[in-house]
Amino acid sequence: MQTRPVAGEQGPPPNMLGSALRAARETRKWGVRELARRIGVNPSMLSSWEFGQRPPKMLDVAAILGALGVIGDEKQRILYLACAAELDRFASYLMALDS
């Protein structure tokens, strides 16, 4: 199973990161408010990340994974999704500069 995109291929679907974060939270049986309180963000911000309305920054993803105690392969998979989202944002920024 290939986990990293090859040059020229598109990355993972936009909301895959949000879905993975929500699944990790639900596995821990925490509500949005509880996790938001523990990582120091507004619950509506956390919700917007989970629903793909706004991508979280890499440091926010790391805080979420740490608070939830996510380790191993699942941690690596979610960090990869976060990295792909950061690269997509950066590519969009560069394309806007080029226009």
UniProtKB/TrEMBL annotation:
<protein>
    <submittedName>
        <fullName>Multiprotein-bridging factor 1 family protein</fullName>
    </submittedName>
</protein>
<dbReference type="InterPro" id="IPR010982">
    <property type="entry name" value="Lambda_DNA-bd_dom_sf"/>
</dbReference>
<feature type="domain" description="HTH cro/C1-type">
    <location>
        <begin position="21"/>
        <end position="75"/>
    </location>
</feature>
<dbReference type="InterPro" id="IPR001387">
    <property type="entry name" value="Cro/C1-type_HTH"/>
</dbReference>
<dbReference type="Pfam" id="PF13560">
    <property type="entry name" value="HTH_31"/>
</dbReference>
